[in-house]
Amino acid sequence: MKESIAILCGGGPAPGINSVISSVSLVFLKSGYRVIGIHEGYKGLFAENPNTIDIDFNFADDIHKHGGSALQMSRHKPKDSEFSTKFFTDNNVQLLVTIGGDDTASTANRISKYLRANDVSIQNIHVSKTIDNDLPLPPGIPTFGYHSAKQEGVRISQTIYEDARTSGNWFVLSAMGREAGHLAFGIGAACHFPMIIIPEMFDKVEVTFERIINLVISAIVKRKIEGIDYGVAIISEGVFHFMSDDEIKNSKIDFTYDDHGHPELGNVSKAHIFNVLLQNRLKVLGISVKSRPVELGYELRCVQPNAYDLMYCGMLGFGVKKLYDEGRTGCMVTADSVGKIQPLYLDDVADKNGKVQPRLVDMKGDKSQMVFNDGLQFIEPGDYTKAKEFVENPEEIDFREILGW
Question: N or C: which terminal CB in the chain sees fewer CB atoms within 10 Å?
C-alpha cells in the first residue's frame, strides 16, 4: 500500500490554515505520498467511518490563498478510551500533521505517546495556529493567523475610531484572546487607542469590573481635560478568565449558566457587558458621555491571509517535510524570521498533565513598557486638580493606583 500522511485541523479557524494544508500537501505529493485530509478534526480521525478527502495537486494549489479551512474543523477533544490505531494502519499512515492551538497540540502529544506505547511507528508533527498568539513559541515568533487577524482588526478599529471622532462618542471594543491579551494589545497599539486593557496588566491586583471600568473612565477624563470628547477603549476578553464566578455574577448582567454553574460567556457580547457597566458608572459620576459596544472576534478568523502569513505558512508547511525527513516526532514546527526550521517538542512546553501552557504578553518587555507608559492616555497625580472638575476623587481613576503599579 502507498505510504500516506494525514492532516487534520482542530479548534477554531485562523487565516493561513489553507496555506499550511496546501504547502504540506504539495511537498509530500511531490515526494510520492498519498495525502489524506480528515474532516472534523480528532472526531473524524477516530470515527468508525472517517470523512476524508484525498488531496491532489489541483485541490492543494487552489486553497492556498483562501481564508477559512478546506478541512472541516472540530473542537472535539477525545478521551484516551477513544484512541485507536485502526485509521493509521488501514491507510499506511506514516505521519499525522495536526494544525491547531494549545488544545490540539496537547491532544497531539497524547496521541503521539499512545502510538509509541502501541508499537505503531508513526510520526506526529504539529503546526501551531491561533489568532491569539498565545502558544509558547520562541520569543518573537508569532503563531500563524495572528498578523492577518490583527490587520483585519486594525482595519475595522480604524473605522470605529473615525466614527468616534465624527460622532463625538466613545466606543468600547472587546477583542478575542482567551487568557492572553496579544490581539487586543496589537490592535490597540497600532490604532493609538487611548486605553488598552489586557489581563496581563493585573499582575499586582485582582481583575474586577470596577478596576476595568475605572481604567476606561481614566482615559475618558484625561481626554476631557485635553478638550477631546471622543475615544476608543479596547479590552481583551481574557480578563474574564481571571475573574471569579462571583465577580461575574455580581455584575448584575444576565447570564446563562452551564451544568456546573459557571457563566456561559460565549453566549454574550463582552463589549456589551463592559459598555453597560461603563454607562451605569458614568451616570453615577454625572459625566455626560455616549458610548457604544463593538465585538471583535468571529469577523477576524476567516479573512484571507495577508502576505506575511502566506509566506510564513508556506515555510511551516515545507518545514513539516524537513522535520519528517529528520525523523522528528511529538513536536511543533517553528520557522524564524529568516526561515530556519526548528522542532519545539511538546513535552518541553507542556505541564505535568500534558497541557501546553499559554504565552502571555510580557509586561516587562520594552514594547509593553513603551505602549503602556507612553502610548496610553490616563489620569496621573499631575492631573488631579483638573480631574476634580469631573470626579470627586481623582485617585480612584489614577491608572497606576488602579493597577497597583
Answer: N
